Amino acid sequence: MGSESVCKFCQIASQALPSYIVFEDSVSLAFLDNRPLFPGHVLLIPRQHFETLTDFPPDLSGGFFRNVQLLAQAVEQGMGAEGTFVAINNKVSQSVPHLHVHIVPRRKKDGLRGFFWPRNAYKDEEQMKEAQAAIRKAIR
Ligand code: DGP
């Protein structure tokens, strides 16, 4: 049995499982997250099963990311928010292995300040240059 047939988000995409859909087109579907950070927290998924962002084919990504922009605007406007937080967990902290973009309405002083990540400075310039070189090498 392929992972698609047991994937919860594939079942939401085919409407075998119910969800509160806010948008759909031929490539993607957006619905309300059932455990939202705030009301109006939306998940945008590709209809086809891809586990992570890096599995997603580039020929689909243009249309898909236009929908991320559309949803970011609609969530902000529709929920009367001041902005949005847009995020994708890949493997780590990804509880559903079907690519999904979180689009979360944000307001100043909404309590999420600094949530997720304690931010740190680099130890020194050397550490920063090492990180730069490692990523540049991977891109080559
Ligand atoms: P992540 O932890 O990044 O993989 O986010 C998965 C999100 O999916 C999480 O915020 C809760 C949401 N979620 C999980 N199962 C369901 C479901 O069956 N229906 C809906 N609407 N959302 C779900």
Folded structure, characterized:
Helix content is 33%, strand content 18%. By secondary structure, it is of the alpha+beta class. It has a single domain (3-139), classed as HIT family, subunit A (2-Layer Sandwich). It has a five-stranded antiparallel beta sheet with strand order 1-2-3-5-4, covered by helices on one side. The longest helix is centred in the middle third of the chain and has 21 residues, at 58-78. The site of 2'-deoxyguanosine-5'-monophosphate has 13 residues, from strand 2.
Number of helices: 4
Task: Work out the radius of gyration.
Answer: 17 Å
- Give the ligands present: 2'-deoxyguanosine-5'-monophosphate
Helix content: 25-40%
Oligomer: single chain
Q: State the low-pLDDT regions, or none.
A: none
Spell out the key features of this protein:
140 residues, alpha+beta, HIT family, subunit A, 5-stranded antiparallel β-sheet, 33% helix, binds 2'-deoxyguanosine-5'-monophosphate
Short description:
With 140 residues, the protein is an alpha+beta fold. The chain has 4 helices and 5 strands. β1 and β2 form a beta hairpin.
